[in-house]
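Worked example 3. Consider a protein that binds guanosine-5'-triphosphate.
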Amino acid sequence: MSDYRKGMAKTRRGFFGRIANAFTKSAITDDDWDEIEALLIQADVGAQTTEMLMNRLRARHKRDGLKTSDQLKMGIKEELRALLKPPTPLNISGRELSVVLIVGVNGSGKTTTIGKLANRLHNNNRKVILAAGDTFRAAAIEQLQQWGQRVGVPVVAGKPNADPGAVVYDAISAAKARGHDVLLVDTAGRLQTKYNLMEELRKIKGVMSKVVPDAPHEVLIVLDGTTGQNALLQAKGFSEVAQLTGVIVTKLDSTAKGGMLFAIQQEMGLPIHYVGLGETIHDLILFNPDAFVDGLFEEE
Ligand SMILES: Nc1nc2c(ncn2[C@@H]2O[C@H](COP(=O)(O)OP(=O)(O)OP(=O)(O)O)[C@@H](O)[C@H]2O)c(=O)[nH]1
Ligand SMILES: [Mg+2]
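Given these inputs, the predicted complex is written out as structure tokens:
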């Protein structure tokens, strides 16, 4: 809980804090409802999800006679909480080798997240290995190798501009030969609208399933928590090509919004596994819906 309180200070001072402050008057006027609705939209909750929330809140207001600002604040917290599913563990156990493909647009935090996730799994006694599937961006290979060193896990890499499918093939072979049980595959950032790059992703997936028939076992999109509604378009675009299985939201420590998570769960139905609350190796936290909603509103 305290990780969320600390990490989400910006979010709390932003739009959700203003929602909480909207509940300080004794009587709730029409203007107040409009203000709450506008703030939810500005906090990136999304038009569709906001409308549904407002309807539920109004119904609740009528039914339960929510009068004090505290009651209404509790009401909105409960309704927001109800939009979030409890987290599910990653599907990376019970087989010889589990393969996790990490995808997303440029700079969303993929490589950093792989480093942090590798550290978590390594500390849980998993035999982790990393694949430097971003052969495109200069210095991407070194960046992943540095994470590998920091965590203490091997990294399989090719030459700059090598075919990422070939690197992935080598990494799976190495993982099997050396008895590793989790392979995390980094990929180059790409816009979901770029056809050729999305086809490359399809090819990478194809290579995986050729070597390990049911791989990849997880396809996780890393979404930058400061992106807002565009994150939904990213998730939809990547899902069409790479059949996403889950989401990691980074940089929640750097946004005054954070409502994107509600829209992602409501409209995509994808599980959110982890959130990034900072740049250090320890700043990847299991997604906790209760702590997240508390973190949006509660004062220290
Ligand atoms: N504040 C904060 N910064 C983060 C978080 N996660 C990643 N970053 C930063 O975001 C920047 C980009 O991270 P990368 O991991 O390189 O992103 P990427 O998606 O691999 O980028 P490309 O490979 O270029 O597509 C770095 O400066 C990271 O330190 C987070 O949870 N919080
Ligand atoms: Mg990267």
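Take a moment to read the result before moving on. The mean pLDDT is 91. The longest helix spans residues 47-64.
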